[in-house]
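Appendix B. Chain record.
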Amino acid sequence: MQLVCLGTTGFHPNARRHTASFLLPEVGVVLDAGTGLFRLAEHLATQQIHIFLSHAHLDHVSGLTYLVETFGVDAYDQVTVHGTADKLEAVKRHLYAPHIFPVAPGYQFCPLGETCELPKNSAGDAGTLRTFPLKHPGGSIGMRLQWPGHSLAYVTDTTAMAGADYIEQIRGVDLLVHESNFPAGQDELAELTGHSCLDKVAQVAAAAEVGRLVVTHVDPLLTKDEDFDLSDAHEVFAKTQIAQDLDVLDF
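Structure tokens predicted for this chain:
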């Protein structure tokens, strides 16, 4: 299976990256709906999509307003947005407020619990999604997605640490996509903002014994590869890379 990186930064887009959104084209599953979602149409391989929101901060939901170009406003049977009940209510009340977005689209909004069934992949296997709470201002959730022979964890907007509560939830996944807004050494700022430093994310990946770590939600002010040094992370967890927009990740 494949994961397409539609957007890999946080807070605001820059010349290289858009904000958080990831697509599993084979099954029509989208993780978060940041500004990178404008790229959805050219990579979509299904008639229906299921969008799973980690939380409702603008850099993770603003792309929901872009879907009209792909599906129109009356797409109840094509677009389902999943998230915790309070976050969905915030999206409907604020993002689609008449003074902001005058024609509210007719999508399904589905409150998300601890588990959810996912569409079948090309092998005919249904998948499962499990959620777990993350520490972040306003609340966020991580996700583990699994089909037979394929597993992925998506952890964004939280403060990573070696003994993080969610390590058991992601243990052994083939691919861990984890935010690291900051490079190593900015622990105080990471704690203040509810984000992660790269060295701590590498420690989480090592502790959870994942197959591969792909770092996302990088600081939008870091605009060059050399701004984000992976050498220390590689000493802790060798299979670490930084996601770039439009990367296609096999898992």
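Further analysis of this model is presented in Appendix C.
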